[in-house]
TrEMBL record:
Keyword Endoplasmic reticulum found: no
Localization terms from the record: Cell inner membrane; Cell membrane
Region of interest (Disordered), residue spans: 1-42, 315-336
Identification of the protein by name: ABC transmembrane type-1 domain-containing protein
Record's keyword annotation contains Nuclease: no
SUPFAM superfamilies named among the record's database cross-references: MetI-like
Length: 336
């Protein structure tokens, strides 16, 4: 083969096997792009916008408010664990005051638990049916009854206790018994059970379920046990926790109704702060804190939703996800 044929093959633009030549068009296109990027002005770092500043301010206010509420509780707990409150933690830590409080006031602890258990039992037997009936009834009479049930919450506890004393104070044996305090606690806590159950029964479609069960021959008792109670369980749990917590911590009403033999936990707490050292009163606060905090934690841990909004939202989200899966994809194109 001649040299001309070799040089001609290379001049024709066909590269030799194994060799590559740069693409002139790509090279020419990359030059303006690089020049445009180098000539682009550098953007300055942006300052936080108004929404970010507003969110930071909300967080700051929330943290300050939490500190304002929590710091006194922490200081009270520390006072019950120190040897001398006026010297502070430098005087040393001790459990002496807790032991002394338990020795002197353990009867009040068990008495408060008995009152709370009896109050819970009565509110369950009366509040659950009442909440169900108020949720099913749409008449004006039911709304008036509901307002009367909520009335003890609006009134001060001292006023409710005075009313009970005026009406039932003449019955000496009843007045001196523990049941007198239980009646006062039922009057105060019953609205919380009724409203919690009524909210759940009103949000769920109980009427349709009951009509379907009635068409199959189920009696009212069977429908109430197998349909109403399972669907009203979130409201019942929420109301029960609220009733027990409020009964253990109720002071105003109990202080008016108690006797020396029926002194509950909050009344004993007031006595310790009034007549004994502040260390003993703070230790009593620790004991009260230990009794009430598990109830509040249980309410959060169980995910109690008295209104049923979270469960309804989950059901709507699940229904939307199921419907989206059933719909065919609009981007898919059938090809033969």
């Amino acid at each position: 083969m001649s040299d001309a044929s070799r040089t001609g093959g290379r001049r024709s633009g066909n590269p030799a096997p194994g060799l590559s030549t740069p693409d002139d068009s790509n090279t020419m296109n990359s030059i303006p792009t690089s020049l445009h990027e180098t000539m682009k002005p550098r953007t300055r770092s942006r300052l936080p916008d108004t929404r970010a500043w507003l969110a930071a301010g909300q967080w700051l206010v929330t943290l300050l408010l939490c500190a304002f509420l929590i710091v006194p509780v922490i200081m009270s707990i520390m006072a019950g664990l120190t040897v001398n409150y006026f010297k502070g933690v430098s005087s040393g830590l001790t459990l002496r005051w807790l032991v002394e409080v338990w020795t002197q006031y353990h009867d009040s602890v068990f008495l408060s638990l008995d009152v709370a258990a009896a109050t819970l039992l009565i509110t369950l037997l009366t509040g659950v049916p009442a909440g169900y009936v108020l949720a099913r009834s749409k008449t004006r009479v039911s709304r008036i009854i509901e307002e009367f049930l909520v009335l003890p919450i609006a009134l001060p506890g001292l006023a409710s206790a005075l009313a009970l004393l005026v009406v039932y104070g003449g019955f000496t044996r009843f007045r001196m018994s523990l049941w007198f305090i239980v009646v006062g606690h039922v009057v105060f806590t019953l609205p919380f059970m009724v409203r919690a159950v009524a909210a759940v029964c009103a949000s769920s479609d109980l009427r349709t379920l009951e009509e379907g069960a009635a068409s199959l021959g189920a009696s009212f008792f069977q429908r109430f046990v197998t349909i109403v109670l399972p669907n009203a369980r979130p409201g019942i749990v929420a109301g029960a926790l609220a009733v027990v917590t409020l009964s253990i911590g109720e002071f105003n009403l109990t202080w008016m109704l108690h006797t020396p033999d029926t002194k509950t936990l909050p009344v004993g707490l007031a006595d310790t702060y009034a007549s004994l050292r502040i260390e003993i009163g703070s230790a009593y606060t620790i004991l009260f804190f230990i009794m009430t905090m598990p109830l509040l934690v249980a309410m959060q841990w169980l995910g109690v939703d008295a209104t049923g909004q979270r469960s309804a939202t989950k059901k709507r989200a699940a229904a939307a996800a199921a419907s989206s899966k059933q719909k065919p994809s609009s981007n898919s194109i059938d090809t033969p």
